[in-house]
Amino acid sequence: MKFKNADRFRRRIAAMAPAARAEIQKALVEGGNEIAGMAKSFAPKKSGDLAASIGVTIGNYVTENANVRGVQATGGGHDLSVTIHAGDGRAFYAAFVEFGTAPHEVGGIFKGAQHPGSRAHPFFFPAFRLGKKRAKSRISRAVNKAAKKAATAS
User: Fold this and answer.
1) What gap in Å lies between CA 29 and CA 84, rounded to an integer?
2) Closest CA to 117 of 131, 106, 133, 129
3) What is the pTM of this model?
4) What angle do CA 133, 24, 130 make, to 5 degrees?
5) What is the pLDDT of residues 98-139, one digit of tens each?
6) Of 99, 32, 34, 37, nearest to 71 (Cα)?
7) Running DSSP on this structure, what letter comes out for residue 58?
8) In Å, how far are 9, 44, 102 from 40, measured between CA atoms?
9) Where are the domains of the chain?
10) Cα-based torsion angle of the residue sequence 52, 136, 76, 29 in order, rounded to the nearest 10 degrees
11) How far is 54 from 128, CA to CA, in rounded Å?
């Protein structure tokens, strides 16, 4: 089978990749920052550590402790990966606030004491659910914009 203008088609596809990556990465970061901003505004502000721990990381994300949670959006490659995360060394309790805790026996210096548990105060996933559709739309627009640029480039 033969294609007319196959070389021109290949050039357009090759030109689209770098432009598309840049547009998609920008859209991922903007969407991530928007969701992280909402999560910060929803987070309880007792000390401010929890809200300060919420962030967006581009590329491979490595947690500094096991209690950090995140939601990752991956689009094929290191530079097209964004993680929105909550919790750090100071705000290790982010998941406890988000999901609550069951009644349990306390350890450490208060070993044996009964903790009544705590109610959940969701801040992370409500922000994610609110911002997800808008972020997806932003990424779709970025892909379309990149495709149009590549189509008119050569």
Assistant:
1) 10
2) 106
3) 0.78
4) 15
5) 999 999 999 889 999 999 999 999 999 999 999 999 998 998
6) 32
7) E
8) 45, 8, 25
9) 6-153
10) -30
11) 12
